[in-house]
Design a protein that fits this description.
The chain has 134 residues and is of the alpha/beta class. The chain has helices at residues 7-14, 20-27, 35-42, 50-60, 70-83, 92-104, 114-121; strands spanning 3-5, 31-32, 107-110, 127-129.
Length: 134
């Protein structure tokens, strides 16, 4: 199974707060990153280490492009979530991550409840919490 990492999970992996199986999945190239997560992560990076961190993330995680039709996918998702009054659950970056994962058939690896909520309403959004144990 291949994953698209969300910032919430990436922070836990970087801080070594994740189970070893996730570290192994990263080492085996099974956990990818996309621009919204890279951008979000770099906004909290130390400015003196910015380029080093960016290079490390680019070397560690396979890059997955945001699909060209991401905004069409997001519009559809937003409308469906609004029907259930949960359209505010995701940030713009999270919507982009979800659209990318849906289009690329990847499982979102995360550590927050928002993606769990979304996946219940939009089954095409596959997700797994980094803290969950199989």
């Amino acid at each position: 199974m291949s994953y698209l990492i969300d910032t919430s999970a990436l922070v836990r992996i970087v801080r070594r707060q994740a189970d070893d199986r996730w570290m192994d999945s990263v080492d085996r190239g099974l956990v990818a990153i996309c621009d919204p997560v890279l951008t979000e992560t770099l906004t909290i990076a130390n400015a003196k280490q910015y380029e080093q961190i960016e290079q490390h993330l680019s070397n560690t995680y396979p890059w997955v492009p945001v699909p060209e039709d991401a905004w069409e996918i997001i519009t559809s998702m937003r409308r469906e979530l609004a029907k259930h009054s949960v359209h505010q659950a995701l940030s713009v970056a999270d919507y982009l991550v979800a659209a990318t994962a849906m289009k690329r058939n990847l499982v979102i690896l995360h550590e927050d409840t928002d993606f769990e909520t979304v996946s219940k309403l939009i089954p095409m959004v596959q997700q797994e919490r980094i803290g969950s144990v199989e």
